[in-house]
Every structure is written in C-alpha cells, then in structure tokens.
Write the structure tokens for this entry.
Amino acid sequence: MDLLSYIEKGGIIGYVLLAMLTIGLTTTVWKYFQIIQSTRNRGLFIQEMLGSINQSKDKALVLNYVKSSLEEKLGELEKGMGLIKTIATLAPLLGLLGTVIGILVAFETIASSGMGDTSTFAGGISLALVTTILGLIISIPHYVGYNFLAHKLDTLEALMYKDADTILIGKEQ
C-alpha cells in the first residue's frame, strides 16, 4: 500500500496531516539552507555591521549596536522555527484525534449492526491506526529537524558573537 492510500484511509485528518507534512518539510529545508548560507556569510555580515560604526569612539554605543544588530539578524533566522515545532507537536495530537474518531466509528457500527460481520467495523479501526501512524511519521522528523536547526542557530549565534568580539578587541588595540 502506498502513502496516498494511507492518507485516503485517514480521511480529512489524513489530508490535514499531508498538508502539515508538505508545509513543515518545505519550511525545514528552507530554514536549513538559510542557516547554512548565513553561517558561510557571517564574516561579511559582521564586517558590514562593524564598518557602519567604525567612526564611533563610544564603546557602550558600539556594543549596544552590535548586540541589537546580531539579535535582529538571528531573529530573522528564527522565523519559521515555531511552525516546525508546532507541526511536531500537533501531528501526533491529530493522529490521536483520528484514533478516537476511528474507534468511535467502529463502536457505532458495532452498535447498529452487531458483531456478526467484522468487516463492518474494520473501516473505523483502519482509520484509527492509519491516523496514528501518519501523525507519528510526520511528528518525528519535524521534532528531529527542529532540534537540529535550533542547534545550528545556537552555534551560529555563538560564532557571530565571537567574531564580533574578536574584531572589536582588535580595533581597540
């Protein structure tokens, strides 16, 4: 059975989970390349930032400008991270919702037609299992991706502050 068959069996929740998967993976890949590019070009950013304040002799003013510039740049890079984290959190909850709906459908079928033919309630059980699986399949890579990207951002932040400190110390001497 292929992925689309599973999604069809998951009903509306399956399609919502598919949309979440598409949006989440796209965002994760986009953030990855954005962070990698910023890591490679961090020296340029630091030089441009410090070049614009090269004339100032006020050390406190320079440090405040550097801090706010770095925070602004890192804030731009953090945009979209919340979406990835939200998908990692919501996907298993939607899977659980599908589980509850599927079991409810199965019990309603049993209540209306009895246990004589098991195929009558198998659709509800199938919905329950498929949505649970889909929710976990979507959640796990987003959770891992979010943590990976958060680590990359933390590393980039440390490198940018270190680079700025190195350049500022060099200018004082």
Summary: Helices lie at 3-9, 11-40, 42-51, 59-78, 81-113, 119-172. Residues 106 and 123 are 7 Å apart (CA to CA).
